[in-house]
Amino acid sequence: MGKLLHVEWYKLVRDKIYWILLAIIVLVNLIILSGGQQFSLSGYSFSKNIMQKEIITIMMASIYGGLFVGRDFEDCTLYHEITAGRSRIEVLSAKIIVFLLALNGLILIFPMLGIIYCTLKNGWGIPFTAGMQFYLLFVFTALMLLNCAIGMISMLAAVCFRDVGRTIGIPIILFFIMIMLLNGKYAIQYAHFLPIGMMALVTNGTVLPVYGMLLGSVWSAVLFMLSALVFCRAELR
Amino acid sequence: MEESIFEAKNLTKKYRGTMALDCVNLTLRRGEIYGFIGENGAGKTTMIRLITGLSFPTDGKMTLFGKSGAKELQKQRARIGCMVETPALYKNMTAQQNLEAQRIQRGIPDKECIQETLKLVGLTDTGKKAVRHFSLGMRQRLGIAMALLNDPEFLILDEPINGLDPSGIVEIRKLMKRLNRERGITLLVSSHVLSELYQTATQYILLHQGHVLEELTQQELDEKCKRHIAIKTNDATKTTTVLESTLHTAHFQVMPDGVVRLYDNLDNMEDVARVLSQAGLLVTGLSLAGDSLEDYFLHRIEGE
């Protein structure tokens, strides 16, 4: 498993598309937020608002999921590990772990940079107590798990369709459906079950981070199991 | 050298009603170069996919290096090197980076093997060029290098000379022979270029519509393909006596079905016929036979 993680990491670090996308995400966020007052907020206030403005980032990160995983299927490079005698579940797990780390990097890079910038410039805004530190840790963990749930949609699409086009396309379609649901009549209700909606609820303090962690974990686990089920039985052509 | 590397017993693979492999029984012995011959859809790549674990059998049993069972088979696959259909390469990386990824994944401690393998396939001067800018031939060589990196005991190459120029074909042929001779690697090579396969393989497996049509050694193939006059008479023994006494030749062979194969006098068929008739033999068949591997294969599948 260690070797598989190592090789996935090796590939990620050398993937120019990832670094270009990371730079684009920071740039796009800077452009979007440069017109408003976001950068004059305290670090705490910035952290409360930013995730609601990260929809485009999440979508762009999902596109990378298609490239990172779908490309491996399309170019058959994923088969190296299987023909080398690795178990399919290990191959899939290593790919998922590195992909989800990469995805979290893409989604959380700008909020992290923004919080650091606003805190340095305008201060944190409220007393930085031990309780606050724990709360932030929980929020951060919840966001990471919710990002994982979003990323796992790309992963499931990749193992089901095994090409770049549909691996990018399907998550984007689902993404738009989620956005429509979250702008409809029952938005609050849906937000409690959909990862993107839960992100906003966790960051603005409507629900406790632990609910976000729970929802993210459940979605991730279910999608992982489905992906594993499909991949372990897949005829790789 | 007789140790079996791979065995298939009643191996069957069905794809939604299509029988890709139908009860195939096959044994591959260590130290041989197997030429895998068949038309498109004969089941060659399906067989390779089953051996390499990319696909699962519908029925039957496989044994790899003496081990069977799904988990054990998968473990044994670490001893295989393969290139299935097109070379699977990381297109955004260089040749060296591709091999480095393979080295990490295979857990090979010595980094030297990368340069050695690149040298072996003639790709030492590609520098920082990304694989996406490689020619088809270069990709093919790199695919072979990826398969060779772990110093496999059993090397499976599906269409290895696709896209190679004539000198590349010669180099790869020499490489395959050298790997077999010097390292004792068993090779299973599938190719549509039968003339090329003929120069490399020591054993042939003819596959047709999911069945193994025939397995034969190079010697047996040569024997079958050798140009000769096939003579069918009412008395095979008398025929050989006539050939020896009248045509002064011992260059013939009596086949189990009574056909006498005469390997000389190929341009004198009329003389042969006359001599046999004059000796009172009833000649029921006299024809020039002998094929190239291509012709032989075509005749075999036409006969099915």
Automatic annotation (TrEMBL), chain A:
<dbReference type="Pfam" id="PF12730">
    <property type="entry name" value="ABC2_membrane_4"/>
</dbReference>
<feature type="transmembrane region" description="Helical">
    <location>
        <begin position="17"/>
        <end position="36"/>
    </location>
</feature>
<feature type="transmembrane region" description="Helical">
    <location>
        <begin position="168"/>
        <end position="188"/>
    </location>
</feature>
<protein>
    <recommendedName>
        <fullName>ABC transporter permease</fullName>
    </recommendedName>
</protein>
<keyword id="KW-1133">Transmembrane helix</keyword>
<feature type="transmembrane region" description="Helical">
    <location>
        <begin position="137"/>
        <end position="161"/>
    </location>
</feature>
<keyword id="KW-0472">Membrane</keyword>
<feature type="transmembrane region" description="Helical">
    <location>
        <begin position="208"/>
        <end position="232"/>
    </location>
</feature>
<feature type="transmembrane region" description="Helical">
    <location>
        <begin position="96"/>
        <end position="117"/>
    </location>
</feature>
<keyword id="KW-0812">Transmembrane</keyword>
TrEMBL record, chain B:
<comment type="similarity">
    <text>Belongs to the ABC transporter superfamily.</text>
</comment>
<dbReference type="InterPro" id="IPR003593">
    <property type="entry name" value="AAA+_ATPase"/>
</dbReference>
<dbReference type="InterPro" id="IPR003439">
    <property type="entry name" value="ABC_transporter-like_ATP-bd"/>
</dbReference>
<keyword id="KW-0067">ATP-binding</keyword>
<dbReference type="GO" id="GO:0016887">
    <property type="term" value="F:ATP hydrolysis activity"/>
</dbReference>
<dbReference type="InterPro" id="IPR017871">
    <property type="entry name" value="ABC_transporter-like_CS"/>
</dbReference>
<protein>
    <submittedName>
        <fullName>ATP-binding cassette domain-containing protein</fullName>
    </submittedName>
</protein>
<dbReference type="GO" id="GO:0005524">
    <property type="term" value="F:ATP binding"/>
</dbReference>
<dbReference type="InterPro" id="IPR027417">
    <property type="entry name" value="P-loop_NTPase"/>
</dbReference>
<keyword id="KW-0547">Nucleotide-binding</keyword>
<keyword id="KW-0813">Transport</keyword>
<feature type="domain" description="ABC transporter">
    <location>
        <begin position="6"/>
        <end position="234"/>
    </location>
</feature>
<dbReference type="Pfam" id="PF00005">
    <property type="entry name" value="ABC_tran"/>
</dbReference>
